[in-house]
Design goal:
Elements (H helix, E strand, L loop, with lengths): L1 E4 L5 H18 L9 H12 L5 E7 L5 E11 L13 E5 L5 E2 L4 H18 L6 E5 L3 H9 L3 E10 L5 H4 L5 E5 L5 H16 L13 H13 L5 E8 L5 E8 L17 E9 L8 H15 L4 E7 L5 H7 L3 E8 L5
Parallel strand pairs: 4-6, 11-12
Antiparallel strand pairs: 1-2, 2-3, 3-4, 3-5, 6-13, 7-12, 7-13, 8-9, 9-10, 10-11
The structure holds coenzyme A.
The site of coenzyme A has 20 residues, from helix 6, strand 11, helix 8, strand 12 and helix 9.
C-alpha cells in the first residue's frame, strides 16, 4: 500500500470513495444523515483543501492506484477573536470524520500507515493533542484508532425533541426561566467562565484554562448570539426574589457555521444545544431539567425534530444527565497525546 498526499487527479475518485463509505455507515445507523448532494460537496471541499497549507489529505493506494483509505490532517492557528480560543489550544489539530475512511475490513492494515504520515505532519506543526472524530457505528474504525493509542474524549449525542408538557414546565418555587437580553451579559459572563473552568479542570487537562482574554471573548460570543435573531436562544434560570442568574443553556436552530467540518452531516431539522451550565450551588434543584424541557419545546416550535450536543466523557455530571433525557451517542472524538 502506497501512502501519498492528495493531488488533483484523485479528487473525483476520492469524492466517490468518501461518499460510498459515508453511505455504508449511514446504512448501519439510520440516525446518521448525509447531504443529498454529498459527492458534489466533497468535490468542492477537496478542491479548497488541496492548496491550503494548513490541511492535507493522505491517500492509501494499492498497486493499481485504487483508493483504500483516506485521512485529512488539519492544523489551524485560531485567530485572536475565535471563540474556540476559550477552550482549545491556539494551534489545534483535527482528523475530521467527514474526510476519514478506510475500506471495511482493512482498517487494522491501512490505518497505521496513514497515521504514521499524519502523526509526523502534526508534529511538524507543533500540534500536541490531535482529535479524531468518528461515527460510533463504525466499531472497526474505533478499535483501530484505539490500537494506535487514541483514547476516548467526547461524545456527540442526539436526543428527541418534544413539545413541553405541563408537568415539565412546573418550575421549582421561586425560580423562572426567560431568554437573556443584552442587560444580562455581565451576569452571564461569570457562569460562562465557570463552565470553561469546570471543563479545564476535568482529568486529562484537554481544555485550556480561562485567561485574561476570556471575558472579552465571552462578551463577544454572547453579543453575537443575542443578535443572531429568532433562531438563537440564550435561556436563563433566574431567582425571582433578587434576579440571581443560576444557570443557562444556549441553543441554535439555524444551519451550522461554515467552519464546522460536520456541516454536510447535520440534517436541517436537527437543533444544536451549545452550552448547559447550572452554577455549583444551584445544582440538583431541577433547574437543568426545566431549562432542557423549555429548550426542547422551543426546538419543536422551530421545526426541529432532534437535537445534538457534545460532552466530555470524563465529566461525571453530563453523561447521566443526557442519558436520562434519552440522548444517545452518535459520534465520538478520540484524542492522541504526543510524548514530549
Ligand atoms: C448538567 C447540569 C447542567 C444539570 O443541571 P442541574 O440543574 O443540576 O440538573 P437537575 O437538578 O435538573 O437534574 C439533575 C439530575 O441528574 C441527577 N444526577 C445528578 N448527578 C448524578 C450522577 N452523578 N449520576 C446520576 N444522576 C445524577 C439528579 O439526581 C437529577 O435527577 P432527577 O431529575 O431524576 O432528580 C449541571 O450538573 C451542570 O451545570 N454541570 C456542570 C457543567 C456541565 O456538565 N454541563 C453539561 C456539559 S455538556
Amino acid at each position: 500500500m502506497l501512502i501519498r498526499p492528495l493531488s488533483q487527479e484523485f479528487i473525483l475518485p476520492l469524492a466517490g470513495f468518501l461518499t460510498r463509505q459515508r453511505q455504508i455507515e449511514t446504512a448501519l445507523d439510520p440516525r446518521l444523515w448525509i447531504a443529498p448532494d454529498l459527492e458534489d460537496q466533497y468535490v468542492s471541499w477537496l478542491n479548497k483543501i488541496v492548496p491550503d497549507p494548513d490541511e492535507k489529505i493522505w491517500l492509501a493506494l494499492d498497486d493499481d492506484a485504487q483508493i483504500y483509505g483516506a485521512l485529512e490532517t488539519r492544523a489551524k492557528t485560531l485567530s485572536q477573536d475565535d471563540i474556540r480560543r476559550t477552550y482549545l489550544s491556539p494551534t489545534y489539530g483535527l482528523l475530521p470524520m467527514g474526510m476519514m475512511a478506510v475500506e471495511p475490513g482493512c482498517w487494522s492494515d491501512i490505518l497505521p500507515a496513514l497515521w504514521e504520515v499524519a502523526a509526523a505532519w502534526f508534529q511538524r506543526r507543533n500540534v500536541t493533542q490531535p482529535q479524531a472524530w468518528l461515527n460510533l457505528c463504525n466499531r472497526e474504525a474505533l478499535a483501530a484508532w484505539e490500537k494506535l493509542g487514541f483514547i476516548n474524549l467526547m461524545d456527540h449525542a442526539v436526543g428527541p425533541v418534544a413539545a413541553a408538557t405541563s408537568a415539565a414546565t412546573a418550575l421549582p418555587e421561586g425560580w423562572r426561566l426567560r431568554p437573556a437580553t443584552y442587560r444580562d451579559i455581565k451576569h452571564i459572563i461569570p457562569l460562562f467562565i465557570e463552565e470553561l473552568k469546570f471543563h479545564a479542570d476535568l482529568p486529562g487537562a484537554y481544555w485550556v484554562q480561562p485567561t485574561t482574554d476570556t471575558t472579552r471573548l465571552a462578551r463577544r460570543e454572547i453579543e453575537m448570539f443575542l443578535s443572531g435573531g429568532s433562531d438563537y436562544l440564550y435561556l436563563l434560570a433566574e431567582r425571582i426574589s433578587d434576579g440571581k442568574i443560576a444557570g443557562y443553556m444556549s441553543a441554535s436552530a439555524s444551519p451550522p457555521v461554515a467552519w464546522n467540518p460536520n456541516a454536510p452531516f447535520l440534517p436541517p431539522d436537527r437543533g444544536i444545544l451549545q452550552v448547559a451550565i447550572v452554577s455549583t450551588e444551584f445544582r440538583n434543584l431541577g433547574l437543568g431539567n426545566h431549562m432542557l424541557a423549555y429548550l426542547l419545546d422551543w426546538f419543536h416550535r422551530h421545526g426541529m425534530t432532534s437535537v445534538s450536543l457534545s460532552y466530555d466523557l470524563s465529566n461525571p455530571l453530563s453523561g447521566p444527565f443526557w442519558r436520562k433525557h434519552n440522548f444517545v451517542p452518535l459520534r465520538r472524538a478520540m484524542v492522541y497525546t504526543f510524548p514530549i
